[in-house]
Specification:
Helices cover 29% and strands 24% of the residues. It is built from twelve helices and 17 strands. The strands form four sheets. Strands 3, 4, 5, 8, 9, 16 and 17 form a seven-stranded mixed beta sheet that branches. Strands 12-11-10-13-14-15 form a six-stranded parallel beta sheet, sandwiched between helices. The longest helix has 14 residues.
């Protein structure tokens, strides 16, 4: 590899207000002995990035001012630390965005995705909306040659969808997905590939409902209209066997649990913006529901599942990635997501 530049362009959160700042000359990150320096080529804009861009209540309490944002990416390894042994310069890679301590009980028992001291790229440490970023070797994922840069750049949210679907066990079962944003749409095609029976979805965006049908949903319902009884009727009169909650919307959560059949399974990924009221007695106790809280991706079980599913050709992901733009046009990407014109936006990252 040739000589590295001294500075690089990056998107940073510099002000306690909506928006991000394009900084043309940021110093390259320092490389530790167990770190990998990646030249970013593509980066996905996700819902978390939108929260940071909009500077909502969660972001104000969680995000450090001055951080380089972004955590979904694909790139090329430029340098490796002196103690790195399993990856070499020139490799095309993505990475797990949750950096774990490796020492707590969760990490030592195969549950690093819920590490007690997790740090997240683009939130706790500088992320991928820059020409270069540093990632611990343990987090690096080599990208299979048959997987495109655009798909590799969205492995993070795809992993959320795969983790949710696989935890719920959808094969041969009727499935309800409440909320078909980016990850909800991915969950539709993952559930289809995983052998789900009937798939029903709800949302308030007609374009996303239309796309959900194209990806394999049997029926799609406007969440603002009554739909619970129809979904229960279509799933044998008892309600769907599986609920995948992707919205975080209080009404959707209530309606989803109301529709779920007695003894059903719910996997919850959506995050409410504030505390919500929940009918504990009827939705959980009397229903005898099994409920899973889903956080991130299982490391690295989910990554192997993702790779195998993508290589199988059974996933439809290209229709979900609706726009590819230059990083300098990042504000347009966020505005298109806000307006509903775009679903998933992938940015091309410039070489410093």
């Amino acid at each position: 590899m040739g000589a590295l530049p001294k500075t690089m362009p990056a998107l940073r959160k510099l002000k306690r207000e909506p928006g991000l700042d394009f900084v043309p000359a940021v110093e390259l990150p320092e490389l530790g002995p167990r770190d990998v320096l990646v030249r970013t080529t593509h980066a996905g804009i996700c819902g978390t990035d939108r929260h940071i861009f909009e500077w909502d209540k969660w972001s104000q309490q969680r995000v450090k001012i001055g951080i380089t944002t972004g955590h979904e990416f694909c790139g090329i390894v430029e340098r490796t630390g002196s103690a790195v042994t399993r990856i070499a310069a020139g490799a095309r890679v993505s990475a797990e965005g949750h950096i774990t301590c490796g020492k707590c009980e969760q990490c030592r028992t195969g549950n690093g995705h819920i590490c007690n001291e997790v740090r997240i790229l683009g939130i706790d440490t500088n992320g991928c909306f820059a020409s270069y970023l540093v990632v611990p070797e343990e987090n690096i994922w080599p990208v299979h040659p048959k997987i495109s840069d655009q798909i590799a750049a969205v492995f993070d949210p795809l992993g959320n969808a795969v983790h949710t679907v696989m935890t719920a066990g959808v094969s041969g079962k009727s499935v309800l997905i409440t909320g078909v944003g980016i990850i909800g749409l991915m969950a539709v095609t993952v559930a289809k590939a995983a052998g789900a029976g009937s798939i029903f979805v709800t949302d308030v965006d007609p374009n996303r409902l239309k796309l959900a049908r194209e990806l394999g949903a049997n029926e799609a319902f406007d969440g603002r209209q009554p739909w619970v009884e129809e979904v229960r009727r279509l799933s044998g009169g008892s309600g769907p066997q599986v609920l995948l909650e992707m919205s975080g919307n209080p009404r959707a959560i209530h309606d989803g649990f109301t529709a779920l059949r007695n003894g059903g399974t719910a996997a919850l990924l959506g995050i409410p913006s504030d505390q919500i009221q929940f009918d504990w007695t009827n939705h959980l106790i009397f229903k005898g529901a099994t409920v899973f809280g889903i956080n991130g991706r299982r490391m690295f079980e989910t990554w192997y599942q993702m790779e195998n599913l993508v290589l199988s050709g059974k996933l439809q992901l290209d229709p979900i990635i609706t726009h590819e733009i230059e990083m300098s046009k990042f504000a347009d990407g966020f505005r298109m997501m806000q307006s509903g014109e775009a679903i998933k936006v992938v940015m091309r990252i410039p070489t410093a």
